[in-house]
Specification:
Blueprint (H helix, E strand, L loop, with lengths): L10 E6 L1 E2 L11 E2 L5 H18 L8 E6 L7 H14 L7 E6 L7 H9 L3 E7 L3 H6 L6 H12 L4 E8 L6 H11 L6 E6 L7 H7 L8 H17 L3 E4 L2 E3 L6 H7 L5 E3 L4 E3 L3 E5 L3 H9 L5 E6 L2 H13 L5 E2 H5 L4 H16 L3 E3 L3 E4 L7 H9 L1
Parallel strand pairs: 1-4, 1-11, 2-3, 4-5, 5-6, 6-7, 7-8
Antiparallel strand pairs: 8-10, 9-10, 12-13, 13-14, 15-17, 16-17
The structure holds iron/sulfur cluster.
């Protein structure tokens, strides 16, 4: 099964997998100590992009680009500019409204900011995670709070939208430290915050260390309380919540993420990158050497392709929609349901509304504030 080249694709994801260290909580496709492969990988990646563009019946008009990783701020300047030129020659970029680059503090030289701007970057997403250097070092992320503040000074007035990522529930961060960080964060020259709950993924060192009782996680209830405190603090400082984990000053909501949430097509390039053409999902192979070789020799690089059942699509719509301030359209969930299924679903909505977990209007369902931190459970209850 191939990506539908005629799909209405307006968004691209580009994966840069190189990292200077491996954080113990990281589930992403990322490689440490492989920098010698950067140029070879770049060339393969550019070939994948050009080959894709050549197959499309018309030049695609691209609106959003997201460069994720890995650590894309380690992409050498010369090669990053080459990538930008290849995007411009392969696609129509005149409607581009957002081009994001992920950057990690401590991996950036000041001169790079001008290069990013020249490459067309409009949005930088900075991986702050925590300002507690000791906690981060224990998680094998040797990043310092001073690196964060320096990168903010360099980008704050230069890049249209600066976003920061923080992780709530990291072991070793006290409530007081978290609150101090948030109170400092709201004074930074940023327009967007993503706040993620710590997830423990199997096959990560954090998972193994937790199994060996090397550390304890904070209590769930305490983390949820802190989450609500943070939501309120962001609101007090003009960061509107438009999704469970996403907060923005007006007009700075991430356009690219909305493509994912609305289940619109996007094409991903690079090792382990995912794509969705509106019908099918694809995932590229995750082995760096095999990826480079296969692109070069025109062998298939897609490792997984799948179509979802109607029930899976419904659950996905529900989970993605419930997370958003705009809610989920009732009609989108009822689509294709038999009469008894619709009745069961609407009864579940009614029940959860009575329990104050949901709000509804004529068209949509919304999470209530008290269920923001348990949206997965709510989605499962609605469709069981
Ligand atoms: S910097 Fe990001 S991608 Fe790299 S190891 Fe850490 S969490 Fe993973």
């Amino acid at each position: 099964m191939n990506y539908n080249y005629a799909a209405d694709t307006r968004s691209l994801y580009i994966h840069w997998p190189f990292c200077p260290y491996r954080c113990h909580f990281c589930p992403f496709v990322a490689f440490v100590g492989q920098d010698a492969f950067m140029e070879q990988y770049h060339n393969a990646l550019m070939k994948e992009i050009k080959d894709f563009a050549a197959q499309c019946p018309e030049k695609l008009i691209i609106e959003t680009v997201y460069i994720g990783g890995g650590t894309p701020s380690t992409w050498p300047n010369r090669l990053l500019l080459d990538m930008s030129a290849i995007l411009k020659s392969s696609f129509t970029m005149k409607n581009l409204s957002e081009m994001t680059l992920e950057a990690n503090p401590g991996t950036v030289e000041q001169e790079q900011i001008a290069v990013w701007k020249e490459a067309g970057i409009t949005r930088v997403s900075i991986g702050v995670q925590s300002l507690n250097d000791t906690v981060l070092r224990r998680l094998n992320r040797p990043q310092k709070a001073s690196d964060v503040r320096q990168l903010l000074r360099w980008t704050g007035n230069e890049i249209e939208t600066v976003s920061v990522d923080v992780i709530i529930g990291l072991p070793g961060v006290t409530d007081e430290e978290w609150k101090e960080m948030i109170q400092e964060l709201v004074t930074w020259p940023i327009k967007h915050v993503s706040m993620y709950f710590l997830s423990i993924h199997e096959n990560t060192p954090l998972y193994t260390r937790l199994k060996k009782n090397e550390f304890a996680l904070p209590e769930d209830d305490a983390v949820v309380d802190l989450y609500y405190w943070t939501v309120d603090t962001f609101a007090d400082h003009g960061f509107g919540q438009y999704e469970v984990s996403s907060f923005a000053k007006a007009g700075h909501e991430s356009l690219h993420n909305q493509v994912y949430w609305e289940r619109k097509p996007y094409k991903g390039f690079g090792v382990g990158a995912c794509s969705f053409d509106g019908e099918l999902r694809f995932e590229n192979m995750k082995n760096l050497e095999r990826y480079c070789k296969s692109v070069t020799t025109h062998e298939p690089i897609v490792a997984v392709s799948e179509s979802l059942t109607l029930q899976q699509i419904r659950l996905e719509r529900l989970m993605l929609g419930l997370r958003r301030r705009s809610g989920v359209k009732i009609q989108d969930i009822l689509e294709g349901m038999k009469e008894h299924e619709s009745e069961k679903f609407l009864a579940a909505v009614h029940e959860l509304e009575k329990e104050k977990f949901l709000r509804t209007d004529a068209e949509n369902i919304y999470l209530s504030k008290m269920s923001l931190a348990i949206e997965n459970e709510i989605a499962v209850r609605l469709l069981r």
